[in-house]
Amino acid sequence: MLRLMDVLSNAMENKKDKVKELKRGQKVAFIATSVTLFLAVMKGTIGYLFDSKILVADAFHSTADLLAIFASGFGLWLASQKKTARFPYGLYKAETLASFIIGALILWAGIEILKDGYHKLFHISRVQMFPILPVSVSVISIITAYFIAKKEKAVGKLINSQSLIVNASESFLDMFTSSVVLMGILLAFANIPYIEGSVIILISLLILRLGIKNIWTSFLVLMDANLDPELQSEIEEEINSIYGVKGVSEVMIRQSGPFKMVECKIETSPSLPLYKAHELANKAEDYIIGNYKHIESVLIHVEPSREKVISAIIPVKDINGLDSKVHGHFGRAPYFAVLRLNNNNNDIEIEDFYFNEFLGEKKHIGIKVIKAIIKYKIDLLFTSKIGEISFYMLKDNFVDIYKSEEDSSIKEIVENYRNNQLEQITSPHSVEESHIGSG
Q: Would you state the pLDDT for residue 315?
């Protein structure tokens, strides 16, 4: 009950933090929209008054950026709204949908400007006086684009908003574009032919690139494409290292606005009780949410393991390969044979013989042995007897325990196990049968 309350409390805190981050992203996006709108109007007005076709084209480029930034802010605003019965997964993808629509508008604008640039190549105009205002506007645009880009990039990474991060890249590109525009205005004043039309065509190509990029990225997100294979591999590797997980068969990640949704299939022992399987799933879920703050939800499916190779351990009296004899008690065995059992070809591989370094001690030998051998990620234990604490400690670590007769060989034990002739130990032996504290 306490754990459930903690989980609910953490979930509420995470929700508040995410809403706060989304609102911060909205604020940056709408400020950037306002500043970009001002620059677009200024460029368009000055370009029109001074007949600077280059500056007018750059104004269209800024307008395309403005639409992309507005789509990001609008999408983040929708994403921060409460989930409803009609939209139980939230409105996170509204940002993606807005980006897709605006990408199409940007693409259309780029085609129109490309036509104007081509037309301008064959209609060369003369500039009579130095274009002080167009030059000044271009310089202001370069400086402003730098500060917008830095802020968008910082906040975009903080809240994991892909649209803000993309817009930051475009704002950095604006610096280059405005620099080219500045050079184009100066070269046009120097009466260098074809420069004005060439710069306009270059700007149109940049606008087309922005539109195509918006459309393609939005399309991939809307189609639930995996856009982060590195994160997928990282999550799979980390979950597979959780004790009790016998394999991760599938990790699926889909983007939903600024957040990611994860589905994962893990395998564990087929004999694992249902409540333990739930505990293992909760452990994997807690790990993912605790280490990746921009993952909105995690769904873990637990399935019985179909491993071809399993790990087993047997307490033995001597080291004599597969003919080593089983010891009569788990904790007081001088050696432990670590085996790899291949279910396909019935091979038995002895991986190691572990020497029991705790034999001279009087208390909790079994516990100390388990702590030492747990690194082998054991699936099975074959033993004649085992104490209560050791038994429950192994069961908590997802180890199945089977009864083996003292003085049987390793080979005989494994053959009996494969022939389903071994009894599974479901409870430890009584205190009277062991030395108290020996494990």
A: 92
